[in-house]
Design brief:
The chain is of the alpha+beta class. It is built from 17 helices and 14 strands.
């Protein structure tokens, strides 16, 4: 009996400490060419935690290690929604392809919390349609304040009612109330701007009652900065004017100044912000302004130093380092990480086997959007031109070895090169070593020199001048001019749209 009790307690501890979230479900009418991804909503510069496909019947299943209990973004076929998940949960999600995940049904462990979110969101959407915020913003201070207070009271009353009905956890109820307060808070700078500009009153200042209310909305600043990206946007909007002045005064006559460095120096002057707030805001600005696939080696080195020296929070530092590695790629001049891949016959293939000649590695999967129509015709011409001087290795990241066999045979038949599989696809050791995620499989390319060292960044366009330059330099050949229609485009890697951040000096 004692032994049974000990085993039971061990099992309970294992369950309670599990970080794994298991998800299965069905997207009615779903396509195997689309993927379901989950991203932590409150993180900084986050990467997908899970990337799974649906089968021909729309079924899917997968699991991932959740970094924490909280809000996650679920995406499919260009649509997104929020879902609240807790470590150790098992749940099922279902919906129709034309609306999933904008609309979905959750059953299992996460049902109560997500029913709560869906119902409160619907109420908030219906409620907001009845508001005339333009009219409110045009009011005098006390009248505008009363409007905001009524909005908060009405929405929080609904939150409490739905929470009691659905039996939602207190954590998700608290999150939703903070979400409402952050949204209301973000209206106040808009009101101030309107009064200064549209009302032709440049000396306007907020009434004390409105300032006090604004401060009360953010009583728990540390929780807000950690959980709500909208609150970070709010803080950045408040800092914009001071940042512009600082940047203009401290960058005159300087060239190649990173926004990250200027903003980091600016943050050091702010005694009104906690270190946690500074870390989140700097991380946001770095991810939006400077961390990108097209950054130079010199700037990438500067970015790495800023992350090491200025970011104090260990989790934020780790996330930034990871996305910086994924977007900037392996360091040029270093030996490519040794990794074992599988050939079509099941035999192992090591990266070091490519030594002796420069090597182009192509990373792709069956669900890559551009391969058949755009990539393969150009790839055939590139391989045909360089094949005497360059090795070509085509690395597949499909979910199974069987799918790899079908994909490689269908897409790459007759193209000289080595077809190999990263066993486990995006969950493989190879994907981790080389920083490969779904958005890099459109497809992408990387070049090694004859000694097996990294010779280039990741490319998404074989017509890119830098790709041609690297290939000509390593092969000793001179490529013909590439016709404009033969180039590739990857909209997934286009810069994000401008946001209201202190990065208003356009020093990108």
């Amino acid at each position: 009996m004692k032994k049974y009790f000990v085993l039971l307690m061990m099992a309970l501890v294992a369950i309670s400490c599990s970080k794994t979230v298991e998800i299965k479900g069905k997207v009615t009418g779903g396509s195997p060419l689309e993927r379901i991804e989950l991203v932590e909503a409150s993180g900084v510069a986050t990467l997908p935690l899970m990337n799974i496909g649906v089968d021909k019947d729309g079924n899917f299943n997968g699991k991932f290690d959740a970094p924490k209990n909280g809000m996650y973004v679920i995406s499919y076929a260009g649509k997104q929604n929020l879902i609240y998940l807790k470590k150790g949960q098992t749940l099922e999600i279902s919906g129709a392809s034309e609306s999933f995940p904008a609309q979905y049904t959750v059953t299992g462990d996460a049902k109560a919390n997500n029913d709560f979110l869906a119902e409160t969101q619907k109420y908030m959407s219906d409620y907001s349609q009845k508001l005339d915020m333009q009219a409110s913003i045009a009011k005098e201070g006390n009248a505008f304040l009363k409007d905001l207070q009524k909005i908060q009271t009405d929405l929080e009353k609904n939150i409490d009612q739905v929470a009691e009905k659905t039996k939602a956890d207190s954590e998700v109820v608290s999150w939703k109330k903070n979400d409402i307060r952050t949204g209301i808070m973000s209206l106040i700078p808009q009101y101030e701007m309107y009064q200064k500009q549209m009302a032709a009153n440049p000396s306007f200042t907020l009434p004390k009652a409105l300032k006090d209310y604004e401060e009360k909305l953010q009583e728990n600043k540390e929780q807000l900065i950690k959980e709500h990206p909208l609150y970070r946007n709010y803080l950045l909007s408040k800092l914009t004017e001071d940042y512009k002045k600082y940047a203009n005064a401290n960058t005159q006559g300087k060239i190649d100044v990173l926004t990250s460095q200027v903003f980091s120096d600016f943050m050091k002057q702010r005694k009104d912000l906690s270190q946690t707030a500074k870390d989140y805001l700097l991380a946001f600005v770095m991810a939006q302004s400077d961390i990108s696939p097209d950054q130079s080696k010199e700037n990438n080195d500067k970015i790495a130093k800023i992350i090491d020296a200025e970011i104090k929070d260990a989790t934020i530092k780790k996330d930034l380092k990871k996305i910086h590695f994924v977007l900037s790629g392996l360091k040029r001049g270093e030996v490519a990480p040794e990794a074992t891949l599988l050939k079509q016959d099941g035999k192992a293939y090591n990266i070091s086997e490519s030594k002796g000649k420069p090597t182009v590695m192509m990373f792709y999967a069956s669900w890559s959007p551009y391969i058949a129509e755009s990539t393969v015709p150009v790839l055939k011409e590139v391989v045909d031109f360089y094949k005497q001087k360059v090795n070509f290795v085509f690395v597949n990241f499909d979910d199974t070895k069987e799918q790899f066999g079908k994909t490689s045979a269908a897409l790459l038949k007759g193209i000289p090169g080595t077809n190999v599989y990263a066993d486990g696809g995006l969950n493989s050791k190879f994907a981790e070593q080389y920083g490969v995620y779904g958005f890099k499989l459109a497809p992408s390319f990387m070049v090694l020199d004859k000694d097996g060292k990294i010779a280039s960044k990741f490319f998404y366009n074989m017509g890119e001048p830098e790709f041609v330059q690297v290939m000509d330099q390593l092969s000793g050949l001179k490529a013909p001019q590439v016709a404009p229609e033969a180039t590739l485009q990857n909209d997934l890697l286009m810069p994000p749209p401008p946001q209201e951040t202190p990065d208003a000096t356009e020093k990108k």
